[in-house]
Amino acid sequence: MPRLDIHTTRDATRYPEAVQSQPAVTVRAIVAGLRALGLDADAALSSAGITEGQLEPLDAMVPVENVWRLWKGILERARREEFPVELGLAVPYGAYGTLDYLAGSSDDVRSGFQSLADYFRLATPIFRLELVPVPDGGEVRLVRIYRYPSDFMSWVVSEFILSVCVGHFASQVPGFSVTEVRLTRPAAADASRLEQLLGARVVLGCSVGALRIPGAAWKAPIPHANPLLRETLRRLAVQIELGAAGSDLELAIRARLRSLLPGGGCTASALARSLGRSERTLHRRLLEVGRTYQEVLDAFRESEAERLLASGDVRLSEAALRLGFADQSTFTRAFKRWKGMSPTKWADSRGR
User: What secondary structure letter does DSSP report for 100?
Assistant: First the structure.
């Protein structure tokens, strides 16, 4: 197990205010997963300095330092790298409360994931869900908005969240399946155990975690669809301001980049115009969440390149065009900077 660095509260204050505390609902879900696995959740909470009383209010928050300590204690006891996936799959449906039931009362899997994306801040301010249509179904991406002090912690939490999604939809929708799971843990790790747990091909070393869902599962109806319940829960979410914290600016930028890049219109000024704001305001808003436009652009291009190459159906020249590069050689140089290898070698290493 790689060493997990738990930063002090003093170190944590270097990060945006939205990262200083985490929604208690996620801690409650972790506890529910531990208990489902027959593990001592009370001892884990105690060692992390978290009390049951802190977790009771619907909109309670837990200091991020305590959440890091909780994960550290859990992983040190488990002593196996696949445990975040095991734990995520074990979290019972309903542990995330309003968020679970919003998804579970939707019409179909696609709209269920859309419900999760709309109110994902209930679970974490660090990540956002992004839904991307693909020819054979849909793709759900877990986009990191803020940086964790530890890259290890980032992929641990990412794997936990994606596994919760897989487990919950599989428990509610007959025939639900995932064909590919992309994870951000180092590519040198062994994916075989992860593939057994998730029931899908696993690709490691990706810039963004993602689930590839086939068409039949993407369109599959949810047996417990309930429009009235869903609307009631949506109003509850708004009333307690589950969607008020943090910023969706990066996802708005990413959504526009997909259409702007093929035409070469990926400058900050062009993007700002598409958002109906000035370039100066765009840069200021991004700096407020600790990002720059170039960072967002590079991160989007890298994750899109992974998606296009993973499909096996897109030529390098076409990928370069879709990503707004002047030519294939410029794209290849950028890809080598991201991955340390050429696009062809990267795709071949993943069995494409």
Answer: H
DSSP run (H or E) holding 54: helix 52-55
Same fold, 9-239 and 249-349: no
CA dihedral (240, 242, 243, 245) positive or negative? positive
The CATH code of domain 9-239 reads 3.90.1520
Provide mean pLDDT across the span 229-257.
67
pLDDT greater than 90 at residue 152: no
Residue 294 corresponds to which tokens in the numbers above? 């170039």
Encode pLDDT of 263-286 as tens digits: 776 888 888 887 777 889 889 888
Burial class (CB in 10 A: 0-12, 13-18, 19+), 138: buried
Beta bridge partners of 142: 129, 209
Q: CA 220: distance to chain centroid?
A: 22
73: helix, strand or coil: helix
Query: Domain spanning 249-349: which superfamily?
Result: Homeodomain-like (1.10.10.60)
Q: 14-70: per-residue pLDDT in tens?
A: 555 556 778 889 999 999 999 999 999 999 999 999 988 888 877 788 888 899 899
Q: Average pLDDT for residues 316-321, to the nearest whole number?
A: 87
The full set of domain ranges for the chain reads 9-239, 249-349
State the amino acid at position 127 in one-letter form: F
Question: What's the CA gap between 33 and 122, in Å, rounded?
Answer: 18
d(CA 314, CA 317): 8
The pTM assigned to this predicted structure is 0.75
The DSSP code sequence of 241-302 is: TTT-SS--HHHHHHHHHHHHGGGT--SHHHHHHHHTS-HHHHHHHHHHTT--HHHHHHHHHH
